[in-house]
Design brief:
Layout (H helix, E strand, L loop, with lengths): L106 H42 L3 E5 L5 H7 L1 E9 L3 E2 L2 E2 L1 E12 L7 E13 H11 L9 E5 L4 E6 L2 E10 L2 E10 L4 H17 L6 E7 L3 E13 L12
Antiparallel strand pairs: 1-2, 2-5, 3-4, 5-6, 6-12, 7-8, 8-9, 9-10, 11-12
Helix pairs in contact: 1-2
């Protein structure tokens, strides 16, 4: 049997002998430079927990810094917190940790929803406003044209919005402007009417009330001539022209070489023509009676209790101002023009 070689100066391991430990090695000092202190590495304890193995990141992710290994025998290093789980599809959005729902209901989406809701409400109100105005136009224009026997346009006040006025039946301001062809039997007359505080409330004898009505009637000289000719048979056919004298406040009806000078006056709420002078074969009283019949016909046909307040003669005709307060809106049996109201 061959005996294994032995270290010089070392006895063999026969008989369970334990070899002596190796002598400690010594670092030779470097001349002129002190040795740095050496660090003593502790041996790992038998009961130390195994270190945690980190998963390598997927290939698509950017390279990460390798995790530091804990010192041998020491406690494991603290791990970074895990990212929050993604929101569950089809369920409630995940919470962001601050009591706010992350995902769909963010600040931007909530603001966008609010803007869309406001736009829808505004669009609905605008559409309702246009519809209410269109419907009111169809009714009130028809009434105005029936009353004046001429074309008319309507405009409304904007405070409060017209949709609210239409729903409540309380109109704060309504303006009427006629085409200027005629106002009932008066040819060549234009009416500008303003109605305020109009309330549509059905009762036994009225469809509502009008707080105030103010009208300006402009009667052109050519229209006066045509009106006299159409409403005064015999005498009216002789009138060839009408002129005005604003300084004297009179109108002159010319019939060839003859003429009638009359002054427009207001008496007890009526607009009359007072004859001042007649040049021709007709007596003054006969001419006055004929003009009284004409003005009575005009005054009696004004609706809603309208009365004359003042009259003015201009270079182109006559301007009369009329008004009414707390007027009742008649039912259709009293005035068929208001049947659609």
């Amino acid at each position: 049997m061959t005996t294994p070689p032995q270290r010089p100066g070392q006895p063999g391991r026969r008989g369970g002998e334990t070899p002596p430990p190796d002598p400690a090695t010594h670092r030779l000092p470097r001349p002129g430079r002190p040795d740095p202190p050496t660090e003593q590495i502790r041996a790992r304890r038998p009961d130390a927990a195994p270190t945690e193995q980190f998963r390598q990141p997927p290939r698509s992710a950017p390279p990460s810094r390798p995790a530091a290994r804990p010192p041998a025998g020491g406690p494991p290093l603290p791990q970074p917190p895990a990212p929050p789980p993604p929101p569950v599809s089809g369920g409630r959005p995940a919470d962001d940790g601050k009591g706010r729902a992350a995902g769909f209901f963010t600040r931007q989406t909530v603001f966008l929803i609010a803007v869309i809701a406001v736009a829808l409400v505004a669009g609905g109100l605008a559409g309702g406003e246009l519809y209410a105005r269109h419907r009111a136009d169809g009714i009130l224009v028809g009434i105005a044209e029936c009353v004046v026997e001429d074309g008319a346009t309507i405009s409304y006040g904007v405070n409060p919005p017209f949709l609210w006025q239409h729903l409540t039946g309380h109109y704060t301001n309504i303006s009427v402007h006629t085409a200027g062809d005629r106002v009932q039997s008066a040819d060549g007359m234009t009416a500008d009417v303003t109605l305020e505080d109009v309330r549509l409330q059905d009762s036994a004898d009225a469809k509502g009330t009008i707080g105030s009505l103010d009208a300006t009637l402009t009667w052109r000289s050519e229209g006066i001539k045509d009106t006299v000719a159409a409403n005064l048979p015999g005498v009216g056919a002789l009138v060839t022209g009408v002129s005005t004298d604003p300084g004297a406040g009179t109108i002159i009806l010319q019939a060839g070489s003859n003429s009638v000078t009359a002054k427009p006056v207001v008496a007890e709420g009526d607009l009359n023509l007072q004859v001042l002078d007649v040049s021709g074969p007709f007596p003054k009283d006969t001419v006055q009676t004929a003009l009284d019949d004409l003005t009575r016909k005009l005054n009696d046909n004004y609706p809603l209790g309208i009365e004359a307040d003042s009259v003015e003669v201009t270079g182109s005709g006559v301007i009369g101002r009329f008004s009414s307060r707390d007027a009742s809106i008649p039912r259709e049996d009293a005035n068929p023009c208001f049947a659609r109201l």
